[in-house]
Amino acid sequence: MVKKLKRSARLVEMTQYLLSRPHHLIPLTTFASRYGAAKSSISEDLAIIKEVFEDEGTGELQTLAGAAGGVKYIPKVGQAQATQFIDELCEKLSQPDRILPGGYLYMSDLLGQPALMNEAGKMFATAFAETEIDCIMTVETKGIPLAYATGAELNLPVVLVRRDHKVTEGSAVSINYVSGSHKSLHTMTLSRRALKEKSRVLIVDDFMKAGGTIQGMVDLLSEFNAEVAGVGVLVESGEVDSGERLLQDYISLATLRAVDAKGKEISVEPGNYFTQK
Q1: Any idea where the Bacterial purine repressor N-terminal domain is (predicted)?
Q2: Is 57 inside a domain boundary?
Q3: What is the pTM of this model?
Q4: Which of 2, 89, 154, 171 could lock 36 by a disulfide, CB 3.0 to 4.6 Å apart?
Q5: The domain that contains 213 carries what CATH number?
Q6: Are 150 and 125 within 8 A, CB to CB?
Q7: What pLDDT is recorded for position 277?
Q8: pLDDT the model gives residue 103
């Protein structure tokens, strides 16, 4: 259906259309047909939107020439916005009432905030914007909101690794992995239909200590002849020596340095986001 709109209204709707379709190539003919406008007018509109996106740090608008060309919105977070988000995340994580018995940190409320997860997803989308990725992977359950937020910003599907095999998943591949401070043995499983062979996968998780769970996913990917395109974690533990960590190539948004259960103090610092990406 052709929409006859004033240019100001058309700019607003085109912007919304692009923002809701990140990493999706949209032919200029789509906009021309949608608004009953000449391609030259649409190109001028896109030039205005591109300038605003770049000035405001909203992202990039890439134009591809040729018959199969069009325009693609690439979400990106600017340095100032990223710094502000990470500082706010560290502040939230430092709240003393997050300390649980045993020195554990309560994070479920943060993982349940869509706005916070969407911003974190955009951070990972920025870090891996130039990386060839076929899908996002996480292990159930707490990392799911972060994985879906990242998948939405990259316009990619999400693959969920289960801790127990479900009959509704069909045939699956299962492996054992070691995780936790007590080096406990666990099992993870992935449906054979969930992941295509030789896929390039971005692993996303909410928390990483030594990296046993993530290494388990890496090992699981090898069973599918798939490749790790990158690893992103919301919070990493800074109490683990680099020699004890099972993987070194990852991006973190925050680092948990110490939890003093007796003194009710939590030390949280920015992660390696700015140095690794």
Answers
A1: 6-75
A2: yes
A3: 0.91
A4: 2
A5: 3.40.50.2020
A6: yes
A7: 60
A8: 81
The residue with tokens 């989308």 is 125
Residues 17 and 86 in one domain: no
Residue 63 belongs to domain with CATH number = 1.10.10.10
Positions in the chain whose pLDDT score sits under 70? 1, 67-68, 180-182, 242-243, 277
Split into its structural domains, the chain has a count of: 2
Q: Which domain holds residue 158?
A: 79-276
pLDDT digits (tens, 9 = 90+) for 49-101: 999 999 988 899 998 887 667 999 999 999 999 999 999 999 999 999 999 98
Q: Are residues 48 and 149 in the same domain?
A: no
One domain for residues 130 and 68: no
Q: Give a three-class secondary structure readout of the chain.
A: CCCCCCHHHHHHHHHHHHHCCCCCCECHHHHHHHHCCCHHHHHHHHHHHHHHHHHHCCEEEEEECCCCCEEEEEECCCHHHHHHHHHHHHHHHCCHHHEECCCEECCHHHHCCHHHHHHHHHHHHHHCCCCCCCEEEEECCCCHHHHHHHHHHHCCCEEEEECCCCHHHCCEEEEEEEECCCCEEEEEEEECCCCCCCCEEEEEEEEECCCHHHHHHHHHHHCCCCEEEEEEEEEEECCCCCCCCCCCCCEEEEEEEEEECCCCEEEEEECCHHHHC
Tell me, yes or no, whether 220 lies in a domain. yes
> What is the model's pLDDT at position 147?
98
Q: Please indicate, yes or no, if residue 132 is contained in any of the structural domains.
A: yes
- Contact of 73 with 66, CB cutoff 8 Å: no
The answer to whether residue 1 is domain-embedded is no
Residue for token digits 């533990």?
A: 237
